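step=encode ok
step=design start
structure_in=
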C-alpha cells in the first residue's frame, strides 16, 4: 500500500518540474540596444515590461515596436511568445524568447512548466522570478 501511495504522489508531483532551455548569445558580442517586436497576442503586459526591465538591468537599451514599424537602427531584435494557464488564478506556464542579429537567430530561450505546474505552489510565482534568470542566461550575463 505504501508503494502505491508513493507512486501516486510521485506521479502528481513529477510533472511540476520546470524546463528551461537556453542557447546564450556569444559573450563577445557587444549589444547596446535590443528592439523588441511587440507580440499583440500576449495579453498580459507585465510580461514585456519584465523582459524590458531585465534587459535594461544589464545596461542594454530597449525599444518596443510593432511589426509594421521596425526602426532601421535595430541591429538586434527580440521576438517573444508567452502563454498563461489557469488554476485558481492565471500564471505564466510557457514562454519563448528569440534574439536575432539581422535575420540570423543568435540566441534563444524557452521556459516551460511541465504538466502546467502540477501541484507545485511555485507556478503562481511572479513573472520576474521566472523570467529574470532566463533573460540573464539568454544574454550570457549570469
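sequence_out=
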Amino acid at each position: 500500500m505504501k508503494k502505491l501511495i508513493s507512486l501516486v504522489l510521485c506521479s502528481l508531483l513529477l510533472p511540476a518540474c520546470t524546463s528551461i532551455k537556453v542557447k546564450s548569445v556569444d559573450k563577445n558580442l557587444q549589444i547596446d540596444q535590443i528592439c523588441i517586436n511587440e507580440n499583440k497576442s500576449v495579453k498580459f503586459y507585465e510580461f514585456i515590461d519584465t523582459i524590458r526591465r531585465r534587459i535594461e538591468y544589464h545596461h542594454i537599451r530597449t525599444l518596443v515596436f510593432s511589426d509594421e514599424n521596425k526602426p532601421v537602427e535595430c541591429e538586434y531584435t527580440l521576438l517573444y511568445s508567452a502563454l498563461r494557464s489557469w488554476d485558481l488564478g492565471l500564471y505564466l506556464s510557457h514562454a519563448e524568447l528569440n534574439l536575432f542579429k539581422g535575420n540570423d537567430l543568435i540566441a534563444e530561450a524557452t521556459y516551460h512548466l511541465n504538466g502546467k505546474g502540477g501541484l507545485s505552489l511555485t507556478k503562481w510565482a511572479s513573472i520576474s522570478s521566472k523570467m529574470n534568470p532566463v533573460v540573464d542566461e539568454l544574454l550570457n550575463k549570469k
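step=design ok
step=annotate ok -> Residues 22 and 109 are 4 Å apart (CA to CA).
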